[in-house]
Design brief:
4 helices, three-stranded antiparallel sheet, two-stranded antiparallel ribbon
Length: 126
């Protein structure tokens, strides 16, 4: 019986260490295979021009590639971190790479942005 309690405690620790992000993004099926998706099942992307935990996608770029914003009360986890954008707002990042959706993805699982801009945009894979 103590093994069951230990396993339950370990699972609780794992789930809480990812904070509220676990409810916002998860691994899901996309047209290009398994990738991170948001709470609506929309594919998440990373951008090669982002570096040093900073988003390089602002202004018109962010209109086409909406950042995955952090809601009040959400906490970062081990691999999921928070990045401060140029406008001071917070967005999610996976292993330091900011996460975005793509406006041309119209339904859950679309991955139309993968390889966009001469390969600078990639689906975010765990």
């Amino acid at each position: 019986m103590s093994r069951i309690f230990a396993a339950a405690a370990a699972l609780t620790l794992i789930l809480t260490s990812t904070g509220a992000f676990a409810e916002m993004a998860k691994v899901g099926d996309t047209s290009k295979g398994k990738a991170f998706v948001d709470s609506k099942g929309m594919t998440l992307y990373t951008f090669d021009k982002d570096s040093g935990g900073k988003s390089a996608c602002n202004g018109p770029c962010a209109t086409n590639w909406p950042p995955l914003m952090v809601a009040d009360g959400e906490k970062a986890g081990v691999d999921m971190t928070v990045v401060t954008r140029d406008d001071g707002k917070k967005m999610w990042a996976y292993k330091g790479k900011p996460l975005y959706t793509f406006v041309k993805d119209t339904k859950a699982g679309d991955a139309n942005g993968d390889g966009f801009l001469n390969g600078a945009w990639h689906i975010a894979k765990p």
